[in-house]
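Exercise 7. Predict the joint structure of the components listed below.
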Amino acid sequence: DSGVTQTPKHLITATGQRVTLRCSPRSGDLSVYWYQQSLDQGLQFLIQYYNGEERAKGNILERFSAQQFPDLHSELNLSSLELGDSALYFCASSPRLAGGIYNEQFFGPGTRLTVL
Amino acid sequence: EDKVVQSPLSLVVHEGDTVTLNCSYEVTNFRSLLWYKQEKKAPTFLFMLTSSGIEKKSGRLSSILDKKELSSILNITATQTGDSAIYLCAVEEVQGAQKLVFGQGTRLTINP
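Solution:
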């Protein structure tokens, strides 16, 4: 158990809908990262938040957005869902913004999103 | 575009064998290379490598980075069925935030 929690574990929804995925980082970690893992794309970095602020963006679609709240939990919002958005969505956390030893990312168990 | 390539993509061996997994990278400003093991769900951290030529070791697993060759290897000796997993390599760039670029992974299967 990494100490990172994600809810829900599974989500099944229809095209065009909007969903919210939630992540609670490890106690004391200020950085939260979101990743998408699909069969054909591997693990893709979406976005990083540090202490409430967006700090890095990866291949995140405009239909997706995220935020980190004052208690450091984070939410990933996915809207106008398409079939291709079906994937495992992971949240990870680390203590600092970047760099240094002991700043490895610890992954949550993931949310499996199925869009029908 | 930053790229991380792992090889082989898939490997099947017998219990007790030794395996070597490869990772090569092309990133603009390299900071560190990380190895993760992914079994059923979440990737779990194995090693972080920042300095070339220094081996990191944990039990039967070891890894080394070669900055000149822009590559890293992960060795597993005396493999066990519990080592069956996808092994992911990720590279961190020097920038204001920690963006990891992951390889496709190597699916390792250990047969009894």
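Discussion. The interface with chain B takes residues 2, 4, 31, 33, 42-45, 48, 50, 55-56, 58, 88, 90, 94, 97-99, 101, 103-110 of chain A (CB under 8 Å).
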